[in-house]
Amino acid sequence: MSDDDEDDGPPPETVETLARRLDALSTQTENLRESLREAREERAELREEVESLRSENAELRRELERLDARTDLLELVESADSMDADQRATALVQHLQRAAERQRERGGLARASVSREEAETALHHPDVDRTTIYDDMRRAVRFVGNEDVLWYDSDTGGESRLKLDLEAGELPSGITGRSNDHRGR
Predict the structure, then answer these.
(1) Cβ contact 160:153 at 8 Å
(2) Residue 173 phi/psi, 5° resolution?
(3) Local structure of residue 148 (DSSP, 8 states)
(4) What digits encode the pLDDT tens for the residues 54-65?
(5) Mind listing the pLDDT tens digit for each residue in 104-156?
(6) What are the φ/ψ torsions at residue 22 (nearest 5 degrees)?
(7) Other CB atoms closer than 10 Å to residue 144's CB: what's the count?
């Protein structure tokens, strides 16, 4: 045998071995591509499921808030006629606070106000004189003790209003019945 015979290429079994390895690698590549496609589809399905759960969670939060408000309302209705002046003033502040927080949740400024008629409605028409509601509105201002946050405005063209601005400060926790850390809610 001459040296020229050895340079004719790899032995035949090596070519067959390389062909088998190439086929095996090709099959592996196709399997990996299929696994990747399945993983991407699964990820897309999981994203849809997460979005659906977020939507359901938001709906459940809204329903919980509605039920909380309704519970507060029912408790207020049950006790409206037996409330004293301090309780009515506190209920007005709490009513305004809920309204201002709803404004904040909608992307607006955390502000709210009520007229005497709206205050009477919020208190579920207690059996008191109409001037008593004005007194309750003024009493609420004294309870809060910060006229940047809550004030009684009698200069609005004949319609006096109790106004709340949570952007200007916090309500005392003794009035709201909860901590003042409501901004992150």
Answers:
(1) yes
(2) -65, -25
(3) T
(4) 888 888 888 888
(5) 998 999 999 999 889 888 887 777 787 888 899 999 999 899 999 999 988 75
(6) -65, -40
(7) 21
**Which amino acid would we find at residue 135?**
D
CA distance 124 to 113: 17
Three-class DSSP category at 168:
coil
Task: Please report, as a single letter, which amino acid is at residue 68.
Answer: D
pTM of the model: 0.53
Q: Cα 123 to the chain's mean position, in Å?
A: 27
d(CA 139, CA 142): 5
Is residue 150 within 8 A of residue 93, CB to CB? The reply is: yes
151 SS3 class: strand
**What is the band of 8 on the pLDDT scale with cuts at 50, 70, 90?**
low
Q: Beta strands 161-165 and 111-115: pairing type? A: antiparallel
- Compute the distance between CA of residue 132 and CA of residue 138 in angstroms, rounded to an integer: 10
Q: Residue 175 and residue 91: Cα distance in Å, rounded?
A: 9
**DSSP annotation of 172:** -
- Average pLDDT on 44-49 reads 92
| Collapsed DSSP state (helix, strand, coil) of residue 69 | helix
CA distance 112 to 177: 19
Contact 58, 108 (CB under 8 A): no
Instruction: With beta carbons less than 8 A apart as the criterion, state whether 129 and 150 touch.
Output: no
The whole-angstrom separation of Cα 90 and Cα 114 is 14
